Amino acid sequence: MSESALNEYIPAAGVTMFTTTWCGYCRNLKRMMDAEGIEYREVNIEETPGTAEIVESFNGGNQTVPTLIFPDGSAATNPRIDEVRSRLGA
C-alpha cells in the first residue's frame, strides 16, 4: 500500500470508516455515530479497490472491520463509541 493511497482516506474532520455490507458491528457503530452526530465517510472494502489492503495494514494482515481512520492518521478497529468520541475530542 502506498502512502498516497492511505492519505486519500485520512479525513479532515470526523472519521473514515471501512466496512462491509454484512458486518453487524459496522451497522451498530454507524447507528451510534449517527445518533451522536459524528461525521463519517463510509468505505466498503469489498467494493472499493485497494481499501482492503489499507485495512490489512492496520490489522496485522486481517480485513477486520469496522476500521476507522482519524484526522491524525491513527486507526482503531471495532472501537466503542466512547473511544471514537474521545479521539475526536467530542
Automatic annotation (TrEMBL):
Domain Glutaredoxin intervals: 15-70
CDD domains: NrdH (cd02976)
Residues annotated as transmembrane: none
Entry-linked InterPro entries: Glutaredoxin, Thioredoxin-like_sf, Thioredoxin_CS
Name under which the protein is recorded: Mycoredoxin
Organism: Zhihengliuella alba
